[in-house]
Every structure is written in C-alpha cells, then in structure tokens.
C-alpha cells in the first residue's frame, strides 16, 4: 500500500473511486450529473485550504480522504468531507490503516484534531467509533433546501 497527499491532478481516479462507492448501497447517492460531481470533487481538492489523501494498491487508487483545514479556537482541524475505501477492499483493515496514516501525516502539519459527519444508520458510524472518533454531545446538523429559479 502507498499513502500520499493528492489533489486535482488525480481527478479522474478520485472520480472513479468516489462514484463507485457512493452511488451504491448503503449510500445510493445520485451522482448522474457528471458536471455537478466534477465541481464537487474540485471543491474538495482544489481550494487553498483543501487537504486530500490517497491510498494506492500499486497504481490503483483504493482509498480517498478529502476535506479542508480549518483554524478553530481549539486548534487546527482536518475537516473530512468524504472518506472511502473501494467497496471490494472494505472490511480488510485498510480503512483503519488509512486513518492511522492520515493521523501521522496531519500531526506533522500541526493539525491537532479531525472532524467529520456521518449518518448513524450506516456502517461508517461504527467504523469511526471503532477508530477513536466520539460523538459531539449536543451537536445537531441543520439543513434547509432553497428554491431557485431553473436555469
């Protein structure tokens, strides 16, 4: 396994992995709008505060972590927006290995904490708990859909 920092130059491999994982169960996200997907991935990898890592088996990207660096009052955070391992490689310890490598690397950058959100009803919830993440007591996520004129 090879671990390294990645960015927009790996867009095709990131897109392929991300699409294969998140358009299937348990996520079933509808990423049929390829332009929207490309813009989303560029948001996660191509900004000045973006931080993304890849896990490779040979030349093949099998794991990705994408997010950003945030300077918070308690220290510098790595806010993970997306984390995944290729579906057929899951449950082999690779996700735990990948997180451990990320922790080592961000520690060298002076980042003192990781933050992420997931759904309580998916296997990722138990994966993150197993890997030392704790729920933030009293933390609630809000969402509001905005009506926009059609383009």
What does this structure look like?
- The chain is of the alpha+beta class and 151 residues long.
- Helix content is 31%, strand content 27%.
- Strand 3 (60-72) and strand 4 (75-85) form a beta hairpin.
- It starts with a strand and ends in a 21-residue tail after the last helix.
Write a compact overview of the structure shown.
With 151 residues, the chain is α+β, with helices and mostly antiparallel strands. It has helices at residues 11-22, 34-45, 94-108, 123-130, and strands at 2-6, 50-57, 60-72, 75-85, 113-116.
Which CATH C-level class is it?
Answer: Alpha Beta
What Rg do the Cα atoms give? Answer: 16 Å
Low-confidence stretches: none
User: What structural class do the secondary elements suggest?
Assistant: alpha+beta
Oligomer: single chain
Annotated CATH homologous superfamily? Gcn5-related N-acetyltransferase (GNAT)
In helices, the fraction of residues equals 25-40%
CATH topology: Aminopeptidase
Mean pLDDT: 95
Q: What fraction strand?
A: 25-35%
Distance between the termini: 45 Å
Number of domains: 1
Strand order, main sheet: write it out: 1-2-3-4-5
> How many distinct beta strands?
5
CATH architecture: 3-Layer(aba) Sandwich
Work out the helix count. Answer: 4
Biggest pleated sheet = 5 strands, mixed
The dominant shape is globular
Instruction: Name the helix and strand elements from N-terminus to C-terminus, one letter apiece.
Output: EHHEEEHEH
């Amino acid at each position: 396994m090879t671990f390294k920092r990645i960015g927009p130059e790996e867009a095709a491999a990131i897109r392929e992995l991300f699409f294969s994982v998140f358009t299937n169960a348990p996520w079933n996200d509808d990423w049929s709008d390829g332009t929207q997907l490309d813009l989303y991935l560029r948001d996660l990898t191509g900004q000045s505060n973006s931080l993304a890592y890849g896990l490779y088996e040979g030349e093949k990207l099998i794991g990705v972590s994408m997010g950003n660096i945030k300077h918070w009052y308690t220290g510098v955070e790595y806010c993970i927006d997306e984390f995944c391992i290729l579906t057929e490689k899951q449950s082999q310890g690779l996700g735990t290995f990948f997180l451990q490598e990320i922790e080592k690397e961000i520690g060298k950058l002076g980042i003192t904490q990781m933050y992420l959100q997931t759904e309580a009803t998916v296997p990722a919830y138990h994966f993150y708990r197993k890997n030392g993440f704790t729920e933030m007591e009293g933390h609630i996520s809000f969402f509001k859909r905005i009506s926009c004129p059609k383009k």
